[in-house]
Amino acid sequence: MKIVAETGREDLAMVYLAEMRNGRFVEFVHSLQPPFTREEKWVLIVSTLFGCPVGCRICDAGGRYRGKLSAEEIRAQIDYMVDLYYPSGDIPAKKFKIQFARMGEPSFNPAVLDVLKELPRRYRAPGLIPSLSTIAPNGTDAFFRELRGIKDRCYGNGNFQLQFSIHTTDTGARDRLMPVDKWDFAAIADYGRDFYKVGDRKVTLNFALARDSSLSVDVMRRYFDPEIFVIKLTPVNPTVSAIKNNIVNGMADEARGDQLEAVRDLRAAGYRVIVSIGELEENKIGSNCGQYVKRVLDGKYGLNGETYQYEVRHAVSRGTRV
Question: Which residues neighbour 276 within 8 Å (Cβ) at sequence distance 6 or greater?
């Protein structure tokens, strides 16, 4: 793995662009969440595919799919960032989250499971919490069966986070937003019931709310038990894809977050609801979900005033354990 460029702020988020085998590129991120220090909460976000075959309409990382990363290539991203701050492998962060969410639908790559099995042995990190975000494509049942077993064996006491990207309760709109065959709400609900055990973190249902998104409390109550599922509301990040497809953020006014009608109704129905706005500066860095700096560098997308505004610097590759 060769680091060829980087962008961002060390005190907020850094994006690293790496060249892998056969001239293929990935990006990965480490970020802080102010006011938390790195010793309190440190988040790494790694890629699992070269590109992504799904092509979600709010994601710049889709398209130009060139295959799966090996387990070694996924580990190399983590090792690089760990070596920058904790070369001994002792990671003192109270919450050390590794998200398999930068580039690629993780359930398409069985190597993700191999990495998950090894992580607790690879680092001395008592705060380790892997986080897997998925749209649950059809044909991935074997992946999710094995994932459930890995969670039970390796990540007890709530030390694993599973998130399904839902975005809307309108099934037609969901299909347009994520144009691939995927589990319906009943299948997600069934899996959640099998996956969740007392003491686990609840399964997250993520809604990146567009202005015209439907979020029906009746639909949620029909399928998703609030004892098992938690709801997370996030903005639609200003990716070039979202702008191109006229998908407008439905949470643009940060002060409205906790006042959204959907939040009130969902909480009244018994759900825990997390409203996560995040650091808007990360949109300019290009470190937020759905962003992909290299696509901009290649000239495939034009820039706008909301996103990809940080200078991308060429980097000298530092050592990794690859």
Answer: 232, 233, 234
Indicate whether this model's pTM tops 0.90.
yes
Q: Are strands 95-100 and 41-46 parallel, antiparallel or unpaired?
A: parallel
Helix, strand, coil percent content, the chain, rounded in steps of 5: 30, 25, 45
Per-residue tokens: 301: 């997308």
Q: Are strands 2-9 and 313-314 parallel, antiparallel or unpaired?
A: antiparallel
| CA–CA distance, 117 with 128 (Å, rounded to integer) | 13
Enter the tokens of residue 303: 């820039």
Write out pLDDT tens, residues 64-81. 899 999 999 999 999 999
The H or E element that residue 147 is part of is: helix 141-154
Q: At what angle do helices 141-154 and 111-122 cross, to 10 degrees?
A: 10
Residue 217, token pair as written in the block: 């409390």
Pick the CATH number of 2-314 from 3.10.129.10, 1.20.1050.80, 3.10.690.10, 3.20.20.70: 3.20.20.70
